[in-house]
Amino acid sequence: MKNKYLYLIWFVALLPVMILRDYTPDNELRYLSIVDEALQNGDVFTFTNQGEIYADKPPLYFWLMMAGKILLGGHRMWFLSLLSFVPAVIVLTTMAKWVRKENAENQTEALLMLMTAGLFTGLALVVRMDMLMCMFIVLALYTFFKIYKGEGGKRDSFLFPAYVFLALFTKGPVGILVPLLSTLVFLLYQRKIHTWRQYWGWKSLLVLLLGCGIWFAGAYMESGSEYLNNLLVHQTVGRGINAFHHKRPFYYYVLSVWYSLAPWMFLSVGLIAFGGVRRKIQTEIERFFLIIILTTFVMLSVISSKLAVYLLPSFPFFIFLPALLLKKFDPTNIWLRISLAVPAIIFTLALPAVFYLSGTDDAFFAGVFLVYLAAGIITLSGLIVLYLLFFKKQLQRPVRVMAAGVLLTVFVAGLAMPQLNPYLGWSRLCEKASAVASEKRTTDYYVYGISRAESMDVFLKKDVIFADKEEIVKNKLDGQLLLISDKAIKKDEDIRSFLFGKEQYAVGKYLVVAL
């Protein structure tokens, strides 16, 4: 199958989710709120969240979001999804072009595996800057390797540091650390460390210093030394040494990598491990890919702040290195088949699991036919994979069937988004709250028991007010509008009794109550 058709199939599979889903309440709505504040305040290099300094992320991704709102007249999910999907496609095309020179075998399987690797697929859809940074890192590493092999042109000596800076300008220090450490360790291993100036010489230094100089000067002129100190010290040293967010143990990624690469974790990690033990990682590209994986893994493990998504820049190499190694192993090898059989068995349990969970109190998907259909598809694909593995003794076709099952499942589940959105996001809740507020002629929105509700200002066009229990049960909010979670009502008898009989509107797992 030609690669261009694979990209089209992937796009179609993800399209329903890209256009039908709601924004997630945690990061996505917060980013939208930050962008709204920046546009309102006229800021370019500095950002605030609810009036507080927000130097957590560099400007590039926010600029793209701001451009989208200005051009389209508002935030559009399809546009924001493309800010992750397009970089993901560029990652795929770059990796395919990179390995094609070494080995055209198993390229289709590698592309399908990366397209359907759990966290890679998810990050190709969400409103986050991780995939954009991953794209620049992959482009930087690819450009480095071209120069290393003597295939780079004059412009590549400037493109390499430009990609590194753009990775830094997208998500921060990891954008420069991954290319820096990976390339230097590779040169050291190849006994060519003396050539480091060819990649990290005055041209690279000039590009990085010029880019950072403009960025830091802009931040200082807009918001002064306090913001610059937060950006350069708090967000780098603080996160790296003693994280104030997402602090995890050193071994965190040893655990997270297994579900991050699902359903290919056993095949991928197994091939890399066996390839290393049996000395089958022999070519320069194979060694480079392995060094990228190991240096990224170790570097991120040392950093105090950890999330599974931070490992994203290594995922393309976690998939394409095994694809390069696969030709060196017997396809009928029982361990290779078992590495696919384990996730296939898990797939077969999807439909029974959905039926079981639909009987629980938290099963918001109960009654949504498309969810059951999606689970049925993934179960069927698991059964077919097991048949091909153990009755037909095949390896390539099971990979394709498993990937096809994942893509079809994502497509069908995406069509169910309109029915699931009230439980996943807040747009319907805020839409109902606005309608009730207009009817009751009130302008304030009080919130209780809803985490990060401050980002509702994206939909409500004004700040919410956080209520406390005393205000609610003592009727101090008479005539006002209250947005409250089901969970908060269930666990508090006083609030439940007070709200009984009040005018209420259920939206997913929340209530809009006219007090």
Describe the protein in words.
Helix 22 (457-460) links the parallel strand 3 and strand 4. Helix 1 runs antiparallel to helix 4 (77-100) and helix 17 (350-357) packs antiparallel against helix 18. The protein folds into 3 domains: 3-327, no CATH class; 331-423; 426-514. The protein contains 25 helices and 7 strands. 40% of the residues are buried. Helices cover 66% and strands 5% of the residues.
Q: SSE layout and pairings?
A:
Blueprint (H helix, E strand, L loop, with lengths): L2 H18 L6 H15 L6 E2 L2 E2 L6 H13 L4 H24 L6 H10 L1 H6 L6 H19 L7 H16 L2 H16 L7 H4 L1 H40 L10 H9 L4 H13 L6 H19 L12 H11 L8 H15 L1 H8 L11 H22 L5 H20 L1 H8 L2 H14 L4 E4 L8 H4 L4 E2 L2 H5 L7 E5 H5 L2 H7 L3 E5 L2 E5 L1
Parallel strand pairs: 3-4, 3-5
Antiparallel strand pairs: 1-2, 5-7, 6-7
Helix pairs in contact: 1-4, 1-19, 2-3, 4-5, 4-7, 4-15, 5-15, 5-19, 7-8, 7-9, 8-9, 8-11, 9-14, 13-15, 13-16, 14-15, 16-18, 17-18, 18-19
Question: Biggest sheet, in brief?
Answer: 5 strands, mixed
Strand content: under 5%
- Inertia-based shape: globular
Instruction: State the helical fraction.
Output: 55-70%
Integer-rounded radius of gyration: 25 Å
Give me the secondary-structure category: mainly alpha
Key terms:
515 residues; five-stranded mixed β-sheet; 7 strands; 66% helix; globular
Structure described in brief:
The protein has 515 residues and is mainly α.
